[in-house]
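Input record (one chain):
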Amino acid sequence: MKRLLLAAFAAATTLTAVSCEDFLSGGGNAAAGTGTLVWRFLPAVRAAALPDTNQFILKVTDSKGTVLFEGPYGSSPERLEVAAGSYTVSAVSAVFTAPAFDSPVYGDTQIVPVEAGKTTYVTLSCTMLGCGIRLRIPAAFREAYPGGRLELSSLDGRLEYGYTETRTAYFQPGMVSLLLHLDSDTRTLFSREMEPREILTVGLSAPGAGGVTGAAVSVEVDTVKVYHDYTYKENDGAAGSSPGNALSVSQARASAGVTGVWVCGYIVGGDLSSTGSKMNTAPPFSKDTHFAIASRSSLTEKEYCLSVELPKGPVRDALNLVDHPDLLGRQIFLKGDLVEAYFGLPGLKNVKEFSE
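The corresponding structure, as predicted from the sequence alone:
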């Protein structure tokens, strides 16, 4: 299946929320002094190394710190009706508890105002929040200090770095030190104030084999910063003009009549019926002509879904749930024509292009 990969960027892209007139159903009631808060990750194609945003931990709080929602992004509600005021929306791929190998944390935080009678759309980017260090330990160093023990230390904890270790150690931004333990002696070989998204390679050198405990150790720091920073970046052009600018399911449901538009969502079910709420949300599936998508993999109520017609040919062959039940819960980008009703709910027909 065709995959579009997002390029890695050397610096994070900060995306702010946009407050506009409510074009979604269920908007705020101005008379009651309430507005609507809607959030999403920018619908660009995920980088291959990025965790599934559906599993990110989302937290929504008001200006007093009261938690309105906290849990997996995929289980979050479609929208929240809230009192006019300021709100903080954050999402992280994991909760940082201590330094760890090969465990970068990604996420974003937005503080946004919600106005009475309007909907505020929070667009979350996804950047690496921590920093990392990897060591280059030559054989001469291991021979000079056979009983030595290397350790990376920060205010958040310590992480032993074995002589044969090749992974990157990740920390919170701040001061990180490299320690060498030799029997009862401990030396600080290296200390640096690390910045977010900064990855450093630290090379060690020492006298040749047979070196003694008192021998000098030199440290060579690769001053070229390597950023493991995969950022959702909105492409130029009108909404729906590309996968990077795809409409959300909510936007698509309100845009019947628009043709040749890209839509992004999660495949949540199939075997739809034209009446009632019937939708099969687990294998096996019996119909290969369509499926339903939603903005979260956990949303299976038809009022939040968009039905998708799979025309006969390559699109149906690649995407139908009868032959590919593993696609259930998968994020998908589809280009087609939005219609007012297909299987009793807003739909997308004439799909000619897709990207997972």
